[in-house]
């Protein structure tokens, strides 16, 4: 790598990681070398790009503007190299932001064939149910559930999944089975992330919409935590079929209110770098889109008969 390209790569990694030592370790350089490279870059440009304190490193206003251009230049270089090598020679790192439950239960099990086909690729999985700052984290690809807000990022819809109302058999044996959405008023509901955090749930029956107010004593920001609450018999929740499919199959939870439909869950791929992701990111997204569509057809709720309760 030329000295100027190395300067860009080092600066971008420091800005994304918020520190010299972590960036140095990831780049395989010593911390003094990383410091020298940044000092030389700032001296050549005649501006301060980074503010250093004992606790963290932040970019200056000039550094933020330079960071955006530097990322684009490195992206264009990588894209050109990938194009020259061809898709069978994709290499490097893809940083992916994933919601915990969906990432654990659906994305990670789909990765083995992709990695086997591209042995020079590495994945960095950033798993959180919080909405990260994708640019600050240096994320190449984010998987997001639900409708997207305007962000200036590129995006592609990957798949949809029905949402179901679920509970454990033990809870229903104790509290009774709701037959209509109005019956939920007499039940404890578990509030989870996204749409299930709302204190009213909207249903469709034969094209007619209805909304019901719900109450509950448990709120969690984690999809995995919500499913644990349901299987522990703590209440009724709404979950996408992808989230609860294994639990439905095992019988640890069952679906109720079969005839009443909820807004489906939407799975999106988001590209913080803009509408034209790199070849390696496009390849991964194409793989996930095909695999999720195949799983959706194989594991649709229609294939799971209503339980006898």
Short description:
With 309 residues, the chain is α/β, with parallel strands linked by helices. It has helices at residues 3-17, 20-27, 31-45, 61-85, 100-107, 111-117, 169-175, 223-231, 241-250, 279-298; strands at residues 50-52, 57-59, 92-98, 121-127, 141-145, 154-161, 163-167, 190-191, 200-205, 208-213, 218-219, 237-240, 254-256, 265-271. It folds into 3 domains: 1-85, Winged helix-like DNA-binding domain superfamily/Winged helix DNA-binding domain (Arc Repressor Mutant, subunit A, Orthogonal Bundle), CATH 1.10.10.10; 86-158 and 265-304, Periplasmic binding protein-like II (D-Maltodextrin-Binding Protein, domain 2, 3-Layer(aba) Sandwich), CATH 3.40.190.10; 163-263, 3-Layer(aba) Sandwich (D-Maltodextrin-Binding Protein, domain 2), CATH 3.40.190.
Report on the structure:
This protein is an alpha/beta fold. It folds into three domains: 1-85, Winged helix-like DNA-binding domain superfamily/Winged helix DNA-binding domain (Arc Repressor Mutant, subunit A, Orthogonal Bundle); 86-158 and 265-304, Periplasmic binding protein-like II (D-Maltodextrin-Binding Protein, domain 2), CATH 3.40.190; 163-263, D-Maltodextrin-Binding Protein, domain 2 (3-Layer(aba) Sandwich), CATH 3.40.190.290. The chain is 40% helix and 22% strand. It is built from ten helices and 14 strands. It has helices at 3-17, 20-27, 31-45, 61-85, 100-107, 111-117, 169-175, 223-231, 241-250, 279-298, and strands spanning 50-52, 57-59, 92-98, 121-127, 141-145, 154-161, 163-167, 190-191, 200-205, 208-213, 218-219, 237-240, 254-256, 265-271. The strands form five sheets. A five-stranded mixed β-sheet has the order 4-3-5-14-6. Strands 12-7-13 form a three-stranded antiparallel β-sheet. Helix 1 (3-17) crosses helix 2 (20-27), helix 1 packs across helix 4 (61-85) and helix 2 packs across helix 3. The longest helix has 25 residues, at 61-85. The chain is elongated and about 70 Å long. The protein starts with a helix and ends in an 11-residue tail after the last helix.
